[in-house]
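<given_protein>
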Amino acid sequence: MGVLGAMMKSGNVAWAAIVLAGAANLGGCAGGSTQQLPPAPFVETAEKPGEDYLIGPLDQLTVFVWRNPELGAKVQVRPDGRITTPLIADMPAVGKTPAQLSADIKQALSTYIKDPIVSVIVDNFSGTYSQQVRIVGATEKPASLPYRANMTLLDAMIAVGGLNDYAAGNRARLVRFDKATGTQKEYGVRLDRLLKRGDASANVRLEPGDVIIIPTSVF
């Protein structure tokens, strides 16, 4: 895989859950001609989630209360979707933006202090299921990745280690849910051109919930 392959690394993710998720999304796609997405503009991918990020299970947060640091804490969202901080037990966190969680903590603390100023920072994030990008099929390490602002197809493929030796990269498909119409759409993506030829026009911007499906070559 050359220099690109050497730089590609990713964590381990449960294979069965990914395959089922990918199959479910693929099954909902309508037939017909494959559409194409426009190339992604060159924008640096953010390392932190944006303002619209929805907090997910196991995210690591910093809660800061101005002038009352003893009421803040570094916490991890529990699998049940809740957090506990000083004076606040079992606050629901999953599915909220950091701003929404800040407002809820502020309201809870108002019982104890006057006009608290609260901020929530996401230190390490996984995202809710709908905000992950899933890559399944003929790749080195199929995975479910937390979506980051300005994330592109190249970012995702680097994270999963690229294509395996049997991949039909130029026949890969991107499945995306269209919120406006309530339907799923399928787009063709050209992974061979992107990864093997360095063709920037084959790099497209991803959205939360995208599923990239890479078929195997038929010999």
